[in-house]
Amino acid sequence: MFLQPGRLWMLLVVPVLVLAYIIVTRRKKRTGMRFTNTAVLGRVVRKQSQWRRHLAVALSLLSLVTLVLAWSRPNGVDRVPRERATIVLVIDVSQSMAATDVAPSRLEAAKQTSIDFVKTLPEQYNVAVVSMSGNPATRLGPTTDRTMATRAIQGLALQDSTAIGDAIYVALSAIQMAPKGDDGSIAPGAIVLLSDGQNTAGRSPQQGAAQAREDEVPIHTIAYGTENGSVDLDGKRERVPPDPALMRTIAEISGGTYAAAESAGDLSRIYQSIRSEIGYDEVKKETTATWAGYGLAFAVVAALAAVSLGARWP
């Protein structure tokens, strides 16, 4: 993107110059020089290096291109570390989290990796914890106290049902509870939602994701567990595969990211990736000086190539 895109028309000069150079070069080859004594000519006029001449022209044109781009005031994107943020961990505690396809169980492995994730977040970030079941609840409001966050995660216990949509609304409410800045603004928020099953109760998850998008709160979803996971419910073995399609849809609607974790190691790597994602803001930055520097560099090298054409090397 350019702040002055109308100036890019100057780039049309480049193909015109290339065409002119090709025409002049071919005409020069056809014309030749009238000199009867070629041996004397060889001693008087040194043969010019073709590749150095072409290189000088090419570098000059590159310099022109980059300088025109700089003149058009290009914009880039810079990743700037966030000074503050509120991260809400939404952790599934439905009965399916008792499955042991992720050792020692889905819930216990999720607890430990979530605690490790919280400890890696910048100290100034607020962390909130929401348990996701048929009755989602905020187990810890936004706080920078990592000890309290650890205790809240450790205290999670299995419950019935899974209301993903309702859990998203609870998480959005938790973000509003975060301390405001000196200017009265609420810190940027993000939701990390881990679920190993399908939505079985409450409001539509897609509706919750749409509300998160409206609030500018991305939801980073994790489809947790394997297709072969199972639990014993009321004396009957039930398969409890994750629902990756729903998790991906929630992430896409809200503007977050999606990942699948089939082991504690997978979950740990995903948390690291999410930490990198939520720790930065993308800020537009004018890169005129950068492109002008490229143009200057090409111009210097082109000048050196031109000087080498006229120099008589030993």
TrEMBL record:
Gene3D superfamilies reported in the protein's UniProt record: von Willebrand factor, type A domain (3.40.50.410)
SUPFAM superfamilies: vWA-like (SSF53300)
Record carries keyword Membrane: yes
Record PROSITE patterns: VWFA
InterPro entries: Aerotolerance_reg_N, UPF0353/GerABKA_families, VWF_A, vWFA_dom_sf
SMART domains registered for this protein in UniProt: VWA
Signal peptide extent: none
Domain VWFA: 86-274
Transmembrane segments: 6-24, 55-72, 291-311
Keywords recorded for this protein, A-Z: Cell membrane, Membrane, Transmembrane, Transmembrane helix
Protein's recorded name: VWA domain-containing protein
